[in-house]
Amino acid sequence: MKLAGKTAIITGGAQGIGRAVAIRFAREGADVVIDDRIAAGGAQDTLAEIQKLGRKGCVIAADIASLADNRRMIQEAAEKMGALDILVNNAGVERRGSFWEVTEKDFDFVMNINLKGLFFATQAFTQYLISAKRPGKIINMSSVHEELPFPHFSTYCASKGGVKMLTRNLSIELAPFGITVNNIAPGAIETPINTKLLNNPDLLKALLDNIPLARLGKPEDVAGLAAFLASADADYVTGATYSVDGGLLWNYSEQ
Q1: What is the CATH number of domain 7-191+219-243?
Q2: What is the reported pTM?
Q3: Which residues contact 5 (CB under 8 A, 6 or more apart)?
Q4: 226 φ/ψ angles, rounded to the nearest 5 degrees
Q5: From CA 173, how far away is CA 179, in angstroms rounded?
Q6: Known catalytic residues?
Q7: How far apart are the first and last CA of the chain?
Q8: Which pLDDT belongs to residue 204?
Q9: pLDDT-based confidence at 252, cuts 50/70/90?
Q10: pLDDT tens sequence across 68-107
Q11: Please, are residues 84 and 9 in contact by the beta-carbon 8 Å criterion?
């Protein structure tokens, strides 16, 4: 088991990619802290799956958009689990809106979770590692839309572009502490955030026509890569972005 003896925190671990990563990490031997805005429902279901695999875990209710909650999340996780090794910044949101109609409220909603929240959760985790004199691994969940234009989702694209650059910058700044920082950029994955797409045959067909592997990804496709980046196999990998998109980002064909 690649993650035996390790403890991971996964934000937004109640469903979708976060849940798949939590379960994969447990299968690889890790104990898992699940962060979600609400401690009931899906978060408890994920915890039950982790415990079925014989691993320890807990749920911490924290709003990633809140600086105070981020600090409390890391402190509480360390107190409950004894030590922390891995942070997966998975929590994320999107909000559709033509650029000329985006409100400040909409902008803040997306940025406060996708970029500001990720920034300060990572800061709190880094402060813990430095204080404890421990190495660590940070894995950010971005999107192909850090590179690929996504009309009517300008706030989402801007936030994910920020995540990619932050990953690169922190990989250099944190390397002296033995902390690696890497980025996963999923494409179209079967998760709740894509419910509208999954229920619209025309939209789905148009998307699949642009994916060389001709299928949507599954959360488990992303979880496998996250497990690698969290393991000793990736000790010399930092500042990298990995696309998990079936070839969508780089697809090009001449008619």
Answers
A1: 3.40.50.720
A2: 0.94
A3: 29
A4: -60, -40
A5: 9
A6: 156
A7: 47
A8: 85
A9: low
A10: 999 999 999 999 999 999 999 999 999 999 999 999 999 9
A11: yes
